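Late entry, evening session. Most of the bench is empty. Finally got around to the prediction I had been postponing all week. Sequence below, unchanged from the version circulated by S.P.
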Amino acid sequence: MSDIRTLEMPKWGLSMEEGVLARWAIQEGDRFAKGQEICEIETSKIVNVLEAPFAGTLRRIIARVGDTLPVGAVLALVADSAVSDAELDAFAASLAAAQPAAPVTQTTEPAVATAAPSFVPAPANKPAASIGQTEVPISLQAKPIRLR
């Protein structure tokens, strides 16, 4: 079973969590080269082509057109013709057993920090008095101009 490789749902962008398999470009039994178009995946933002990360033979399609799958989900199995169908079935079954039946969601509220802050700002200076409440020092040369 070590000769079996997987093609997985890629992560295109920081916010991508899942994708919809829109179209297969190759069929079971087809050989493909590295960089060849494998399938088309639609996300909430784009529709893009998944290119083969390695060369091989597509032996088993796991995901069907229209399936919505999380990032990292197995789309297909790749193996040489020497690998039996029974080995592919066993490998696919082990993948299904390893994946959770339903997506895990957080049910508890996030923890709220209750510790005192490590930085306490210094008290603000006394606000400046509004205009007209303070006397501004005036030079001796400016006094005659002010009196006019």
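Two things to note before I forget:
The longest strand covers residues 18-24.
The chain has two helices and eight strands.
Will write this up properly tomorrow.
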